[in-house]
Design brief:
This protein is of the alpha/beta class. The protein folds into 3 domains: 109 residues, 3-Layer(aba) Sandwich (Rossmann fold); 148 residues, Histidine kinase-like ATPase, C-terminal domain (Heat Shock Protein 90, 2-Layer Sandwich); 122 residues, Rossmann fold, CATH 3.40.50.2300. Helices cover 49% and strands 17% of the residues. The strands form 4 sheets. A 5-stranded parallel beta sheet has the order 2-1-3-4-5, with helices on both faces. It has a 5-stranded mixed beta sheet with strand order 7-9-10-12-11, covered by helices on one side. The chain has a 5-stranded parallel beta sheet with strand order 14-13-15-16-17, with helices on both faces. Helix 3 packs parallel to helix 4 and helix 6 packs antiparallel against helix 7. The radius of gyration is 46 Å and the shape is elongated. The N and C termini lie far apart (94 Å). It catalyses: ATP + protein L-histidine = ADP + protein N-phospho-L-histidine.
């Protein structure tokens, strides 16, 4: 029943006079009681009416030809939509108890006998009309309540989602704050050592042994700072997908063995029992990045395993994969941390043990580098104190022999090529020039791009080390100008920059440089880069 409809009454009677009498009586109260009256001359017509309308009550004659009142009532109540319509049977004779039972079994709500008493008819019909109106009112209230419930449910879901997002943001913010605090701590430690060692070198009473030890401290702590910066940059690049892999077939067993040997040479493995089982396993990967992955896993095992503990390294090759497993008997990983052990920041914020230092981003970097190689990494632990196992799976490839690199015999300090150093950082320029001079290289210096071009034109050095971020004109423009001038076009140009992405290397080479070195540059790297400058042109090519 539509919300704007009045309750409807259906009168069913095959006798036209009786039908008219009943409908006329009901019509006179229709406006007062707010209902409308419909009529039907047979059971079949009544069923059609019921299909079209919802009725508050049906006055149904018992004795009708064809389909009598009982059959009509049964048919009406068999239909789900009209099953609850109250029916008042109207009969001309006094029904016995059997007829009454039969009527009630067919769904009768009441009986009326003819001749109908108007007041009784009005009273009974008014009750059912009022009941229909009340039911309609309840139905509307239920619909509003349902709608309101739906709205409240949606609002509650939204609030819950917003609360979860807020808590997640707060957790991430807190983790980042802890990470930044940790980063400050990790940076200040080596800076403090460098500062103290530098001051010690400058003391008048410092003996040679003390000065040598201070220099070693400065070198070691500078390398530590460089590793921290490299880890941060690599993680950022890996997260943003900006690391480009220089892939080639490589035996992971050889690479892991090399990393382990480096750890042994630096004393990192002292005090631990290592079990190493490395079967050949070839992968298509970037050797530098694979070394990072392996070093981080070894470093993690050593860092969180007490002295005297066991560290097992196992490498095997299956039909499709190369599997590297690093297992330790260390402090283990709590169950609540295990699902987050590779997460960025979270690992650093809730690290197992901060006493060993470090940023705690090594495992995050491992996961991203492994995924860039098309592999996967997983962690397992039985909980605190029960050690941990890290497993890396990477697609295997067919063995290949890498071309042999040309061997250069180390030369003496005589006949070294002249070098022009173009660098605006005075301290960095002075230190690098001093180191190059100590290795026998004639060195000229320039503090900006324009001075560098002028020095190259006048001095015609064999090689130029050019910083990219120069005042005046940058390193790219320095290279372009030197390449345009026939007099300086043959100078070996080596770019020095703090940017190491593939895009940075591309820009460097396009500008005319021969080589791209990322700061900080070790002396070994410089010597290797400058070795080509002293070779004959045919060999250098």
């Amino acid at each position: 029943m539509a919300h704007t409809d009045k309750p409807k009454i259906l009168v069913v009677n095959d006798d036209a006079a009786s039908l008219l009498a009943l409908t006329s009586l009901l019509d006179q109260w229709a406006d007062e009681s707010n209902y409308t009256v419909h009529s039907a001359r047979s059971g079949q017509e009544a069923l059609r009416q019921v299909l079209l309308h919802d009725f508050a009550v049906i006055l149904l004659d018992v004795n009708m030809p064809g389909m009598d009142g009982f059959e009509t009532a049964e048919a009406i109540h068999q239909r789900a939509r009209s099953a609850d319509i109250p029916i008042i049977f109207v009969t001309a004779f006094l029904a016995d108890e059997i007829d009454r039972l039969k009527a009630y079994q067919r769904g009768a709500a009441d009986f009326m006998f003819t001749p109908v008493i108007p007041q009784v008819l009005h009273a009974k019909v008014s009750v059912f009309v009022a009941l229909a109106m009340k039911n309609e009112q309840l139905k509307r209230q239920a619909e509003k309540l349902s709608q309101r419930t739906t709205e409240l449910t949606a609002t509650n879901r939204r609030l819950v989602r917003e609360m979860e997002e807020r808590r997640d943001a707060e957790r991430k913010s807190h983790a980042k704050d802890e990470f930044l605090a940790m980063l400050g701590h990790e940076l200040r430690n080596p800076l403090s050592a460098i500062s103290s060692a530098s001051s010690l070198i400058g003391l008048a009473g410092a003996n040679s042994e003390t000065v040598v030890r201070a220099k070693q401290i400065i070198q070691r702590q500078s390398q530590h700072l460089s590793r921290i910066v490299d880890d941060l940059l690599d993680l950022s690049r890996a997260m943003s997908g900006k690391i480009l892999l220089a892939r080639k077939p490589i035996d992971l067993a050889t690479l892991v063995a090399g990393c382990l040997e480096t750890f042994r040479a630096t004393g990192r493995t002292a005090g631990y029992r290592f079990s190493v089982d490395l079967a050949p396993g070839w992968v298509d990967g970037d050797p530098t990045r694979l070394e990072q992955i392996t070093s981080n896993l070894l470093d993690n095992a050593i860092k969180y395993t007490p002295a005297g503990g066991n560290i097992d390294i196992h490498l095997e090759q299956t039909a499709d994969e190369v599997v590297l497993t690093v297992r330790d008997s260390g402090v283990g990983i709590p169950a609540e941390l295990l699902p987050h052990v590779f997460d960025v920041f979270v690992q650093g914020a809730i690290s197992i043990d901060r006493s060993q230092g470090g940023l705690g981003i090594g495992l995050s970097l491992v996961r991203r580098l492994v995924e860039l190689h098309g592999g996967s990494v997983s962690a397992q632990s039985e909980g605190s104190g029960n050690g941990s196992t890290f497993m890396i799976r990477m697609p295997r490839t067919e063995p290949a022999v890498a071309p042999q690199a040309p061997q250069h015999s180390p030369g003496d300090n005589t006949g070294k090529p002249s070098v022009l150093l173009i660098e605006d950082n005075e301290d960095g320029r002075e230190m690098m020039a001093t180191m190059l001079a100590a290795h026998g290289f004639p060195v000229a210096q320039a503090a900006d791009g324009l001075q560098g071009v002028a020095a190259a034109v006048s001095g015609l050095p064999a090689a130029a080390l050019v910083d990219i971020g120069l005042p005046g004109i940058d390193g790219y423009e320095v290279a372009r100008r030197l390449r345009r001038d026939p007099a300086t076009a043959g100078i070996r140009l080596i770019a020095l920059t703090g940017y190491g992405l593939a895009e940075d290397q591309r820009r460097v080479l396009e500008a005319g440089f021969d080589q791209h070195l990322v700061k900080p540059v070790s002396m070994d790297q410089l010597l290797e880069a400058l070795a080509s400058a002293s070779m004959p042109a045919a060999d250098a090519a």
